[in-house]
Amino acid sequence: MRRTASPLSLVVLGFGTFLLVLAPLLAWYVQPRAAVNPVDIDTTAVYTGSGSVFDLDRVETVPGQAITVTQRVRGNVEASVDSGNAVWDVITTVDTDASLPAADPHDALDFSPHRWVLDRRTTKPVHCCEEKPRIEGEAYLKFPFDVQKRSYQWWDNTLGDTVVMRYRGTEKVQGYTGYRFTASVPATKTGTRLVPGTLVDQPDRPQVLAEEWYSNHGLELVVDQATGRVIYAQTGPRRTLRAPGGDEDAAVLLDAEKLAFTTATQKEAVRQAERDSGQLRMVGETLPVGAAVAGFVLAVVGGILVARGRKEEERPGLPGTAR
């Protein structure tokens, strides 16, 4: 009698070995390459709240106005493919009820187009592709993948600089848990604007190169840990004018203590975060663990079957042959 390995045992052993090799590849090679920022993004976030707005017709600041901020982000696929980065074109508009609905974004109270170019894997800004302004920091519009419990440098486009977003624990948004970050911005000069002298308490001068100042009552972001997607955002912008060299605000252009994601924007952000983080979790955790467990079991079973073999009787030799 002799023992031989059956084809089934070899198949089981081979497949188990394959799964054991596949498991770390999924976790360490495939998953990091699946975590990339899209080039064909097309999303719209809407903030609403109330505050004071400068009325051009009345030439004065009017309090208690309903304010809507709309931020649309669209990927420029052609520029992205050419550069190898994600090229996102952003249009931000600020409206009151008087300018909504606007057929043309240029009709808004404030219209701000700009372009953000980012590394598809790290989310760090890349300076190319007619980027404007020159965005810096670690995050803008979204955080990097695999968000950590630490402070991040967040680009504030109105400020034209980064602010420190500090980690403040976790918070649920529409039943979904994310990391919460907060920051504030002290009054900072951001530029100049030619305005009638009467706006900055200089009625004797027909026009004045007034100073533009910006501050923020409070920035708050809740972010999906896996993808870095912002699922809740709140901002409190204050934009004012001062006379050249002045120490006090002479005119308030915009002042809102709280402008926040609408419920619809929150729900859509959470839906996308759940979908994308689920896909990353499947590739980086579920499939590798499943493959490792199944591979181990199959390898053990296959090894046992090979070791035990299959008993076969030796075939009788041909006549005249030695036995």
> How many domains, as an integer?
2
- Poorly predicted runs are 26-31, 311-315
The mean pLDDT is 83
Q: Give Rg in angstroms.
A: 30 Å
Helix and strand content put the structural class at: alpha+beta
Largest sheet: 11 strands, antiparallel
Number of strands: 13
Helix content: 25-40%
Shape: elongated
Distance between the termini: 14 Å
Separate helix tally: 3
Give the percentage of residues in beta strands.
35-45%
Q: Strand-and-helix sequence, N→C?
A: EHEEHEEEEEEEEEHE
General description of the model:
- By secondary structure, this protein is α+β, with helices and mostly antiparallel strands.
- The chain folds into two domains: 2-28 and 285-312, no CATH class; 29-280, no CATH class.
- Helices cover 25% and strands 42% of the residues.
- It is built from three helices and 13 strands, in the order βαββαβββββββββαβ.
- It has helices at 7-34, 77-83, 263-308, and strands spanning 2-4, 42-55, 60-75, 86-96, 110-118, 152-156, 161-173, 176-196, 207-223, 230-235, 237-242, 251-261, 310-312.
- The strands form two sheets. Strands 2, 3, 4, 5, 6, 7, 8, 9, 10, 11 and 12 form an eleven-stranded antiparallel beta sheet that branches. A two-stranded antiparallel sheet has the order 1-13.
- α1 (7-34) packs antiparallel against α3.
- The longest helix has 46 residues, at 263-308.
